[in-house]
Write a sequence for this structure.
């Protein structure tokens, strides 16, 4: 059996990969796949008793804000980006600019830089320390922490703050991009209304869309979204099929005309006969194709994941060698330490 969960407040693609790896190690789990773009977790298991609590424990250790929720509603809304980042970024920019302006004494400028660094980089430093406690040394937080702390130690305060500032701006842009992607995908989910108006003789009742069967008569009012694939039996109207087909010109709907789910009834009152159940309807097939495509990880993605495990420790080793070996022979320790820190920053894609 398969079950879907939504990972609320999932904001780290690398963390999602770690979660997937750890979940796959669970004895109860036959297979697991996490799609970062939709914050969707699909589990295959024969026993789901107590599984959600175990999933929460694993995901919470990797990314504390994440909440594992059962996906049990149609058109479920995914979490929005937290805009507290904007406040921290703006405040950090103000303090950073004041420090760069250099209109105060050097001591006060250092305080400004240090304050900006704590505001912009406090979260990254905390994550790095937390990961160190778990034995996870090599991630972007670790690289950012040692590079910027090292910059502070050699007196390059503006550069330490600048790196954190660019990182936070990039992080915010990434969150916005992910939020937009999730919104587009959930709009596909919205092609399926949660309820339909079932016609039975002279009466009309509202029932969940999953209860509608082939042969049922469904009433469509103006502006209603067509819930299931079917054939018009009564009425005359114009139907907007652009959400499904992309066709911008509405088409006429009349008795005998086939109509697909996801379309929108524009004007008249229609009655349609259901020809396909929910699972086989056009909107459901589109959604299924989108979600399964997102959950399928191509070979390139798996190659990058394996490469990252090797890349980070190699980068750290090369940086140490850059600082120590030339420094030992030339005696210019500060210059080569600066060079090594620069190498660490530019080796971290998140920093760029």
């Amino acid at each position: 059996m398969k079950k879907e969960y939504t990972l609320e407040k999932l904001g780290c693609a690398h963390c999602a990969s770690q979660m997937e790896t750890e979940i796959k190690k669970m004895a109860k789990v036959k297979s697991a796949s996490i799609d970062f773009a939709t914050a969707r977790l699909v589990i295959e298991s024969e026993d789901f008793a107590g599984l959600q609590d175990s999933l929460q424990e694993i995901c919470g250790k990797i990314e504390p804000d994440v909440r594992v929720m059962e996906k049990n509603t149609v058109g479920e809304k995914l979490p929005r980006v937290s805009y507290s980042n904007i406040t921290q970024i703006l405040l950090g920019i103000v303090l950073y600019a004041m420090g760069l302006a250099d209109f105060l004494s050097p001591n006060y400028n250092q305080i400004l830089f240090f304050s900006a660094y704590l505001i912009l980089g406090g979260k990254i430093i905390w994550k790095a320390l937390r990961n160190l406690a778990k034995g996870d040394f090599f991630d972007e937080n670790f690289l950012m922490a040692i590079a910027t702390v090292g910059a502070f130690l050699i007196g390059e305060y503006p550069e330490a703050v600048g790196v954190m500032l660019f990182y936070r701006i990039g992080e915010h842009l990434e969150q916005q991009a992910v939020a937009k992607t999730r919104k587009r995908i959930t709009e596909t989910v919205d092609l399926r209304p949660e309820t339909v108006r079932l016609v039975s003789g002279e009466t009309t009742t509202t029932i969940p869309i999953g209860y509608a069967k082939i042969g049922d008569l469904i009433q469509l009012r103006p502006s209603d979204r067509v819930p299931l694939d079917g054939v018009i039996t009564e009425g005359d109207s114009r139907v907007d099929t652009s959400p499904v087909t992309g066709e911008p010109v509405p088409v006429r709907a009349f008795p005998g005309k086939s109509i697909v789910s996801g379309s929108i009834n524009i004007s008249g009152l229609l009655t349609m006969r259901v020809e396909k159940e929910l699972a086989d309807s056009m909107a459901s097939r589109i959604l299924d194709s989108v979600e399964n495509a997102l959950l399928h990880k191509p070979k390139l993605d798996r190659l990058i994941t394996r490469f990252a495990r090797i890349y980070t420790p190699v980068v750290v080793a090369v940086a140490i060698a850059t600082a120590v070996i030339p420094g030992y022979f030339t005696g210019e320790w500060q210059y080569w330490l600066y060079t090594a820190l620069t190498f660490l920053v530019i080796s971290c894609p998140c920093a760029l």
About this structure: The CA atoms of residues 242 and 248 lie 5 Å apart. Confidence is low (pLDDT under 50) at residues 73-79. The first helix runs from residue 13 to 24. The longest strand covers residues 2-8.
